[in-house]
Amino acid sequence: MNYINSPIEQITFNSRKYFIKRDDLLHKDFSGNKARKLYYFLKNDFPNIKKVVSHGSAQSNAMYSLSVLCKIKDLSFDYYVDHIASFLKENPSGNYKYALENKMNIIDAELPKTFEEDTLFISEGGAVSEACFGIEILANEIISWANENKIENLKIFLPSGTGTTALYLQKYLPFEVLTCACVGDEDYLKKQFNMLEKENHPTIIKAEKKYHFGKLYKEFYKIHNELLTQTNIEFDFLYDSLGWICLEKYLETLQEKDFEILYIHQGGILGNISMLERYKNKYGSI
Ligand SMILES: *Cc1c(COP(=O)(O)O)cnc(C)c1O
User: Fold this and answer.
1) Is the Cβ atom of 192 under 6 angstroms away from ligand 1?
2) Which residues lie below 8 Å from residue 268, measured CB to CB, with a gap of 6+?
3) What EC identifiers does the entry list (predicted)?
4) Which one of 39, 40, 89, 105 has the largest count of C-beta atoms within 10 Å of its C-beta?
């Protein structure tokens, strides 16, 4: 499987101009930032590895992308969850459904402390140092695009979970990288950065109120639908809704804006299926 450079599109949202890096369109089965983070494992051969082990939520985008990787590389895949909703178990959907189709073994138990030698362990969300390999490629695509279009003043925005993508983008880009914390708070995100690199961290934009990851918020639903209507692009509910809220707030505080913004669309659309159902149940169709 080879990547083609994902496209960059110009959009207008709420009367502001943005560029969008469409990593959601990277590949039909292997897209978004999880594909970038796992690219190292896709491109290299590990003759002694027979199995991949990871852990996290039963709806996670990383889980699905790992299942694709294991299918391509003919590896078995054990995924540990500490809880799985009975509704999901009985009605598999989204990432969970498609990961099962890729032969993921879901294990509702504590993650083992040690693994066999033929096992590759990948920590939750793909927060591993090998992720820098694929993210450097993403950074180089952005640099080439900026050069071709003679854009010198550019800021990059992307919402963070573990912060791995934002951190490595900042490492390889000559532009400022802005992000916001979608999982946990700012301190959690700083700790995550520090675990991988001690310096050159992205700039964290603070949210105006505290949001809990995976919960439903009317303003998330609203901005998701506004984005869809105005730009015709479907963004992810869990990260992008908060991302856009934070980015717009940040831009409102500026006296003048002498830079272009490139928003990284990090995929995750498969995870929207179950979120959309929950939103419709709670707020109806907007
Ligand atoms: C995983 C994910 C993120 C968070 O990525 P990190 O590298 O963990 O910060 C953001 N957006 C989407 C759509 C994701 O799937």
Assistant:
1) no
2) 24, 32, 61, 236, 238, 239, 240
3) 3.5.99.7
4) 39
> Is 129 considered catalytic here?
no
By most ligand atoms within 8 Å of CB, the mutation choice from 135, 239, 241, 265 for ligand 1 is 239
CA-to-CA distance for 38 and 134, rounded, in angstroms? 7
Range of the domain at 172: 8-28+130-283
Which of 76, 93, 126 is where one domain is finished? 126
Out of 60, 65, 160, 241, pick the active-site residue. 60
Q: Which residues contact 274 (CB under 8 A, 6 or more apart)?
A: 59, 88, 93, 94
Ligand 1: centre distance to CA 126 (Å): 9
Within this chain, do residues 97 and 192 fall inside the same structural domain, yes or no?
no
Do 109 and 159 lie in one domain? The reply is no
CATH assignment at residue 175: 3.40.50.1100
Query: Does 217 lie in the same domain as 184?
Result: yes
